[in-house]
Structures are given as C-alpha cells and as structure tokens.
Amino acid sequence: MAIIILNALLGVAGSHLIHYFTNGDFQYVIEDLMDELGVDDADEIIGSDTSSEEYYRELSEQEVSAYPDGCNGYAHFDVTDEDMGALIEAWTRTEYGRDISGDDSSSEDNYIYTYDGETTSYLQKTTYYNVDGEYNDYVIIYSDSATGKIHSVTASMEDTERIKSFLKMVVQKLDSKADWSEKELERQCDNFLKQMDSGDGSVDIDNMVINGSKYSDGEIWLSIGCTDF
To answer: Residue 114, class by beta-carbon neighbours within 10 Å (0-12 exposed, 13-18 middle, 19+ buried)?
Structure first.
C-alpha cells in the first residue's frame, strides 16, 4: 500500500530516491506518515474509481426526504403504514376487545447500495405492534421511510381462526383492486393455512407473496410481501 501511495505522490523516479536515502525502509516511513495524517487507506490520498466497487452508505433523515417516490430496492403496496395501522388497531379492538400499541417503538434503516456503478436505495421503517396482554401476538409493518407505502406486513398469533381473520383483512386491504369474492379469498387463505400443517406454507396471490410457519407450540407466523416493483 505504501508503494502505491509513494508512486502516486512522487512518481517512480522519486520512489527510487526515497528507497536509496532510507536504506530500503521507505515503506515504514510512509506508513508512519499515514498514521500521523490519520489516513487509513490509500484511496483517501490517490482517490479511487468506485464504478466497479461495492459499498453501502447510510442515509441521513435529510437525504431520505430527497426520495419523494420512495426507494427502488423494495416493492411497494399502494397502502400506507398509517392506513394499515388504523385498520389493525380497529381489528384488534374487535378481535381481542382491547388495544394494540406500537407507534412508540418504530425504527428506520435507510441506506444506498452501490455495485458496478449502479446504486439501489433501501428506505425502510419498521413499526412494531403488540397486543396489550398478549406476549406472543404481534404485528410488524415494514414501510418506506419516505412515502409510508408498505413493503410487507408480518404477524404472529396462536389462534388459527384469528390469524385467518387477520390474513383476510390484510390481503383485502393491500390488494383492494383485485375485487375478491368472499369465497375465493376464503379458499386462498384455507389453502395457505393447510400448507402449514406440515410446518411451512407459501402462496402467491396477485401482487403479493405470503409465507408462513407453524411452530410446535401452535404459534403461527406469517409474512405478506409485495412483489410488484
């Protein structure tokens, strides 16, 4: 690395002179100089062509606001996290007879990924909802940090009929243009839940994919993700 820096700064002839006057220890001289300057990488001095490199960079809140149409690394439903959150809260009050809370425990993960000159943006807000008094029943909404549009919804519940009710509600909300008949939606959900009798299930419905697992204690986990980029 020291040789690269030396050649960049002085040229080949200059590096030979330094080699002569330092009795061949010029590499350590340059490395000491790098330490004094606080330079960890030669790229900081001689620059680098990042067109063929791979790297990640986190985005600030201000940078996220520069993506009015959202990121291009995740597929998005047209429904926002705010609308889905309100629907889930209403459903929970009806289904459980009590509230669900979660807005105070959300987090964001926003970054760009560049490879071979192509940059992909990933903007994701994660909002956790826990049903009051139910430690194993929860919902998580993953949405775009800039637009609020949903990437996916996951849930975990112990009651099969309850998870089925939740699944039907969310599918109808996320894919409202599909004009579902109650019979067809019932069939799709039953098919998915039946698959999980053997442990795992997966089904593609219109613009979404639904994956799930059923654990030995009876808990059912599912994820509804968008496939329409």
So the answer is: middle
